[in-house]
Amino acid sequence: MTSKAKGIYTVGITGASGAIYGVRLVQELLRQSYKVHLILTEAAWRVFQEELLLDTSNRERILEDLFGEFNGELHTHHLHDYGAPIASGSYQNNGMIIIPCSMGTLSGIATGASGNLLERTADVMLKEGRKLILVPRETPLNQIHLENMLRVTKVGAKVLPAMPGFYHLPKSLDDLVNFLVGKALDSLDVEHELFTRWGEKR
Fold it and tell me: Where is the Flavoprotein domain (predicted)?
Protein backbone atom coordinates (compact mmCIF):
# COMPACT_ATOMS: atom_id res chain seq x y z
CA MET A 1 0.00 0.00 0.00
CA THR A 2 1.21 3.48 -0.83
CA SER A 3 0.56 6.59 1.24
CA LYS A 4 0.85 8.90 -1.81
CA ALA A 5 -2.35 8.19 -3.72
CA LYS A 6 -2.92 9.86 -7.10
CA GLY A 7 -6.47 10.69 -6.04
CA ILE A 8 -9.43 9.39 -4.08
CA TYR A 9 -12.56 7.64 -5.34
CA THR A 10 -15.52 5.99 -3.65
CA VAL A 11 -16.84 2.82 -5.27
CA GLY A 12 -20.10 1.07 -4.43
CA ILE A 13 -20.96 -2.45 -5.57
CA THR A 14 -24.60 -3.51 -5.13
CA GLY A 15 -26.58 -6.67 -5.76
CA ALA A 16 -27.35 -5.97 -9.41
CA SER A 17 -25.93 -8.44 -11.90
CA GLY A 18 -22.49 -7.52 -13.16
CA ALA A 19 -20.29 -7.67 -10.05
CA ILE A 20 -17.28 -8.21 -12.32
CA TYR A 21 -17.63 -4.61 -13.52
CA GLY A 22 -17.15 -3.26 -10.02
CA VAL A 23 -14.30 -5.64 -9.24
CA ARG A 24 -12.43 -4.78 -12.43
CA LEU A 25 -12.88 -1.05 -11.88
CA VAL A 26 -11.54 -1.20 -8.33
CA GLN A 27 -8.59 -3.27 -9.53
CA GLU A 28 -7.75 -0.71 -12.21
CA LEU A 29 -7.97 2.21 -9.78
CA LEU A 30 -5.71 0.41 -7.32
CA ARG A 31 -3.31 -0.61 -10.09
CA GLN A 32 -2.92 3.08 -10.92
CA SER A 33 -2.24 3.89 -7.23
CA TYR A 34 -5.52 5.63 -6.40
CA LYS A 35 -7.07 5.51 -2.93
CA VAL A 36 -10.40 3.66 -3.05
CA HIS A 37 -13.19 3.70 -0.47
CA LEU A 38 -15.23 0.57 -1.16
CA ILE A 39 -18.79 -0.14 -0.01
CA LEU A 40 -20.44 -3.49 -0.72
CA THR A 41 -24.07 -4.24 0.01
CA GLU A 42 -25.14 -7.61 1.42
CA ALA A 43 -26.70 -8.43 -1.94
CA ALA A 44 -23.34 -7.72 -3.60
CA TRP A 45 -21.77 -10.52 -1.59
CA ARG A 46 -24.52 -12.85 -2.81
CA VAL A 47 -23.74 -11.89 -6.41
CA PHE A 48 -20.03 -12.53 -5.74
CA GLN A 49 -21.06 -16.05 -4.79
CA GLU A 50 -23.43 -16.63 -7.72
CA GLU A 51 -21.58 -14.89 -10.57
CA LEU A 52 -17.93 -15.03 -9.54
CA LEU A 53 -18.26 -18.43 -7.83
CA LEU A 54 -16.55 -17.19 -4.68
CA ASP A 55 -16.90 -18.71 -1.23
CA THR A 56 -18.14 -15.69 0.72
CA SER A 57 -17.74 -17.29 4.16
CA ASN A 58 -14.41 -15.45 4.55
CA ARG A 59 -14.96 -11.94 3.23
CA GLU A 60 -11.57 -10.56 4.29
CA ARG A 61 -9.84 -13.33 2.34
CA ILE A 62 -11.93 -12.55 -0.75
CA LEU A 63 -11.01 -8.87 -0.60
CA GLU A 64 -7.35 -9.76 -0.21
CA ASP A 65 -7.49 -12.20 -3.14
CA LEU A 66 -9.28 -9.70 -5.40
CA PHE A 67 -7.43 -6.52 -4.51
CA GLY A 68 -4.38 -7.30 -2.38
CA GLU A 69 -1.78 -7.40 -5.14
CA PHE A 70 -2.26 -3.81 -6.30
CA ASN A 71 -0.38 -0.67 -5.29
CA GLY A 72 -3.31 1.57 -4.37
CA GLU A 73 -4.85 2.16 -0.97
CA LEU A 74 -8.09 0.28 -0.29
CA HIS A 75 -10.48 1.18 2.54
CA THR A 76 -13.62 -0.90 2.96
CA HIS A 77 -16.64 0.33 4.92
CA HIS A 78 -19.60 -1.42 6.48
CA LEU A 79 -22.88 -0.51 4.81
CA HIS A 80 -24.11 1.19 7.99
CA ASP A 81 -20.89 2.85 9.16
CA TYR A 82 -22.12 6.44 9.20
CA GLY A 83 -18.90 7.46 10.94
CA ALA A 84 -16.89 6.78 7.79
CA PRO A 85 -15.15 9.88 6.40
CA ILE A 86 -16.97 9.59 3.07
CA ALA A 87 -20.28 10.24 4.86
CA SER A 88 -19.29 13.89 5.32
CA GLY A 89 -19.09 16.64 2.76
CA SER A 90 -15.95 17.92 4.45
CA TYR A 91 -14.06 14.86 3.20
CA GLN A 92 -12.57 15.59 -0.20
CA ASN A 93 -12.56 13.02 -2.98
CA ASN A 94 -12.50 13.03 -6.76
CA GLY A 95 -15.77 11.23 -7.35
CA MET A 96 -18.03 8.28 -6.66
CA ILE A 97 -19.29 5.46 -8.83
CA ILE A 98 -21.80 2.71 -8.06
CA ILE A 99 -21.09 -0.18 -10.41
CA PRO A 100 -23.33 -2.05 -10.82
CA CYS A 101 -26.17 0.00 -9.35
CA SER A 102 -29.34 -1.84 -8.37
CA MET A 103 -32.75 -0.29 -8.88
CA GLY A 104 -33.23 -0.27 -5.10
CA THR A 105 -30.08 1.78 -4.58
CA LEU A 106 -31.04 4.07 -7.45
CA SER A 107 -34.42 4.63 -5.81
CA GLY A 108 -32.82 5.47 -2.46
CA ILE A 109 -30.52 8.01 -4.09
CA ALA A 110 -33.31 9.53 -6.21
CA THR A 111 -35.46 10.13 -3.15
CA GLY A 112 -32.65 11.32 -0.87
CA ALA A 113 -33.37 8.50 1.58
CA SER A 114 -29.76 8.12 2.84
CA GLY A 115 -30.83 4.77 4.28
CA ASN A 116 -27.27 3.42 4.38
CA LEU A 117 -23.68 4.60 3.86
CA LEU A 118 -23.89 4.05 0.11
CA GLU A 119 -26.94 6.25 -0.29
CA ARG A 120 -25.61 8.82 2.17
CA THR A 121 -22.30 9.14 0.35
CA ALA A 122 -24.11 9.52 -2.98
CA ASP A 123 -26.23 12.25 -1.40
CA VAL A 124 -23.04 13.98 -0.23
CA MET A 125 -21.64 13.90 -3.76
CA LEU A 126 -24.78 15.52 -5.12
CA LYS A 127 -25.01 18.23 -2.48
CA GLU A 128 -21.32 19.08 -2.89
CA GLY A 129 -21.53 19.12 -6.68
CA ARG A 130 -19.03 16.28 -7.14
CA LYS A 131 -18.94 13.49 -9.70
CA LEU A 132 -21.52 10.74 -9.14
CA ILE A 133 -21.69 7.96 -11.74
CA LEU A 134 -24.42 5.31 -11.55
CA VAL A 135 -24.10 2.15 -13.66
CA PRO A 136 -27.49 0.39 -13.70
CA ARG A 137 -27.66 -3.20 -14.93
CA GLU A 138 -31.33 -4.04 -15.32
CA THR A 139 -33.57 -4.98 -18.23
CA PRO A 140 -36.28 -4.28 -19.15
CA LEU A 141 -36.80 -0.93 -17.43
CA ASN A 142 -40.16 0.17 -16.08
CA GLN A 143 -41.39 3.73 -15.72
CA ILE A 144 -40.27 3.99 -12.09
CA HIS A 145 -36.71 3.03 -13.07
CA LEU A 146 -36.67 5.56 -15.88
CA GLU A 147 -38.12 8.35 -13.74
CA ASN A 148 -35.53 7.70 -11.03
CA MET A 149 -32.74 7.86 -13.61
CA LEU A 150 -34.10 11.16 -14.88
CA ARG A 151 -34.43 12.49 -11.33
CA VAL A 152 -30.80 11.80 -10.39
CA THR A 153 -29.57 13.13 -13.73
CA LYS A 154 -31.39 16.42 -13.15
CA VAL A 155 -29.51 16.98 -9.89
CA GLY A 156 -26.07 16.23 -11.26
CA ALA A 157 -25.50 12.47 -11.43
CA LYS A 158 -24.50 10.70 -14.63
CA VAL A 159 -26.26 7.47 -15.59
CA LEU A 160 -24.01 5.10 -17.51
CA PRO A 161 -25.96 1.92 -18.35
CA ALA A 162 -23.99 -1.31 -18.47
CA MET A 163 -24.19 -1.56 -22.27
CA PRO A 164 -20.96 -2.83 -23.86
CA GLY A 165 -20.01 -1.66 -27.34
CA PHE A 166 -18.94 -3.90 -30.20
CA TYR A 167 -17.13 -1.57 -32.60
CA HIS A 168 -13.82 -2.51 -30.95
CA LEU A 169 -14.45 -6.12 -32.08
CA PRO A 170 -14.36 -7.87 -28.70
CA LYS A 171 -12.91 -11.36 -28.75
CA SER A 172 -13.62 -12.37 -25.15
CA LEU A 173 -15.74 -11.68 -22.09
CA ASP A 174 -12.82 -9.70 -20.70
CA ASP A 175 -12.95 -7.39 -23.73
CA LEU A 176 -16.63 -6.66 -23.06
CA VAL A 177 -16.03 -6.06 -19.35
CA ASN A 178 -13.02 -3.83 -20.02
CA PHE A 179 -14.99 -1.73 -22.49
CA LEU A 180 -17.68 -0.91 -19.95
CA VAL A 181 -15.16 -0.34 -17.15
CA GLY A 182 -13.17 1.89 -19.47
CA LYS A 183 -16.24 4.00 -20.22
CA ALA A 184 -16.82 4.30 -16.47
CA LEU A 185 -13.23 5.41 -15.93
CA ASP A 186 -13.65 7.98 -18.71
CA SER A 187 -16.56 9.45 -16.75
CA LEU A 188 -14.34 9.66 -13.67
CA ASP A 189 -11.57 11.36 -15.69
CA VAL A 190 -9.21 8.46 -15.07
CA GLU A 191 -6.85 7.58 -17.92
CA HIS A 192 -6.67 3.97 -19.04
CA GLU A 193 -5.89 1.65 -21.93
CA LEU A 194 -8.63 -0.92 -21.42
CA PHE A 195 -10.06 -0.80 -24.95
CA THR A 196 -9.33 0.47 -28.46
CA ARG A 197 -11.12 3.74 -29.08
CA TRP A 198 -13.02 4.55 -32.25
CA GLY A 199 -10.54 5.68 -34.89
CA GLU A 200 -7.52 4.12 -33.19
CA LYS A 201 -5.55 1.32 -34.83
CA ARG A 202 -6.56 -2.14 -33.67
Answer: 10-188
In CATH terms, is domain 8-187 a member of 2.40.50.140?
no
Residue 103 annotated as binding site? yes
Of residues 3 and 175, the one with the higher pLDDT is 175
Residue 137 is labelled as binding a ligand = yes
pLDDT interval class at 202 (50, 70, 90): low
Cβ neighbours of residue 169 under 8 Å, at least 6 residues apart?
A: 202
Domain positions in the chain are 8-187
Q: Is residue 16 annotated as involved in ligand binding?
A: yes
Determine if residue 44 is labeled as part of a ligand binding site: no
- Is 91 marked as binding a ligand? no
Q: Determine whether the annotation assigns residue 15 to a binding site.
A: yes
Q: Binding site annotation covers 1?
A: no
pTM for this entry: 0.95
Cα separation, 198 vs 202, whole angstroms: 9
